[in-house]
Amino acid sequence: MKKIIDTIKNIFSIEDLRKRIINTFLYLLMFRIGSYIVLPGIDSSRLADSSGGMLGLINTFAGGAFGRASILALGIMPYISASIVIQLLTIAVPQFQRMAKEGEEGRTKLNQYTRIFTIAITFIQAFGFLATLRGQGGASPIINDNFAFLVSTIIFLIAGTVFTMWLGERITDKGIGNGISLIIMVGILARFPQAIWGELSARSTQGGGGLFVFLVEIVFLLLVIAFTILLVQGTRKIPVQYAKRVIGNKQYGGARQWLPLKVNQAGVMPIIFAQAIMFIPGTIAQLFRGNPFWDGVAMNFNSQNSWVYDVSLALTIIAFTYFYTAITINPVQIADEMKRNNGFVPGVKPGKSTADFIDNVMSRITLPGSIFLALIAIMPGLTRVFGLSTNFSQFFGGTSLLIMVGVLLDTLQQIESQLTMRHYDGLMKGGNRIKGRTQQVQSM
Predict the structure, then answer these.
(1) Per-residue pLDDT of the chain (444 residues; tens, 9 = 90+)
(2) Domain spanning 14-190: which superfamily?
(3) Fold matches, 14-190 and 192-444
(4) Which residues are paired to 70 by β-bridges?
(5) SS3 sequence, 147-166?
């Protein structure tokens, strides 16, 4: 306990770190306040539940603002979509590949393109958001659905997304950690106390199982979190030896370094992609109501308690994990950079043999990583079979848990580096430093 108190004192004794923590808190507070400001022309009392399917995913990323029809309803989701598009373009389009290799100037150009794509995607998603509101039928929350409402709503939604994007960039520059990830995490965590209280209340009722069952659920949640941390942190280190080079009167290289390959290189993206794909069959089935086959499809794919949904989701995640890993990790490029810097893997010839070796290692570690990722993704559906509430079960896996674990590790790593840079002890004893989800050791 004394160690924790001393660490907190050390954190707030550093002026720059103290300012960054306060700035982060204030920017996140601004986002949370904005998420409760309802769009003009909306009757919030008639809003329907949007906790399932793709709408539930958007609502999770927006911190519940989507379900409240807030001015920040679309949140940071358009920015994430734009970032994915830009990332894919840097792989497929030569012009974007050149920009990615131009250093700071290239990154600035890519950021500008990302912002432009964000506005365009927000404009398109704004129509989808309005269609969702109108699709509630007679209970539509729109007070006066006219052209003025359409224009003002689109403007407010675009402004809300741009404001959220600005907050994320300010947190990255003036705060701690990745601002976009922190905004998503805070939105998820904000729903945790309500979920805990709801589950405790349900277990306290007659026939709910009592406090003992609730404590068992908490212990199981902690085990799932520990398992998720192992998945996020797991790496396979490949030894890389560099030849000695003498430049002037100094000697470079000659030491063994490591090329870390993460077990879960794709992160949370396969789950996001897979959930978006799983939303399609149920949507198509709605067009053929009355047909027994399509009614069965709708029943299976619109319910996360269905084993058909869980199996399909798991297989889709495994496939997307391999796909996303393949487009983000280029063994040929890694092997070429190692060769240019006189580096080699002991026992493996430089060039093509090294590229094949790295590709084989990635294939082997991606299989268990994808299976574990799929298991975490379907865990919320499995826990609901045992009677857990929908809100509480979301924290047992899926996108929410992976984002929370990854962002918390990254934030702790930022604080750790600030402390050690100023000759303070880190957050952990014995030199066991925290390694964040996005930490990559480059040996090139």
Answers:
(1) 676 777 777 777 778 888 888 999 999 999 999 888 888 888 877 776 655 555 666 677 777 777 788 888 888 888 888 887 887 788 778 888 888 878 788 888 888 999 999 999 889 888 888 877 776 655 677 888 788 888 999 999 999 999 999 998 899 888 887 888 888 888 888 888 888 888 888 888 766 778 888 888 899 889 988 888 888 888 888 888 877 766 666 666 566 788 888 888 887 778 877 776 777 777 677 677 777 887 787 777 766 667 888 888 889 889 888 888 887 788 888 888 888 888 888 888 888 888 899 999 998 899 888 898 888 888 887 887 777 877 788 788 777 788 888 888 888 877 777 777 765 555 555 445 555 444 433 333
(2) SecY subunit domain (1.10.3370.10)
(3) yes
(4) 38
(5) HHHHHHHHHHHHHHHHHHHH
CB-based contact 359:331 (threshold 8 Å): yes
Whose tokens are 């809003």? That residue is 47
How far is 258 from 237, CA to CA, in rounded Å? 6
Domains of the chain, by residue range, sit at 14-190, 192-444
The CATH architecture of the domain made up of 192-444 is Orthogonal Bundle (1.10)
DSSP-based three-state secondary structure for 290: coil
Q: Which of 394, 378, 358 is nearest to 194 (CA)?
A: 394
Long-range contacts of 324-331 (CB under 8 A, 24+ apart): 324/265, 324/266, 324/269, 324/270, 324/273, 325/265, 325/266, 325/362, 325/366, 327/88, 327/91, 328/87, 328/265, 328/266, 329/261, 329/265, 329/362, 331/355, 331/356, 331/358, 331/359, 331/362
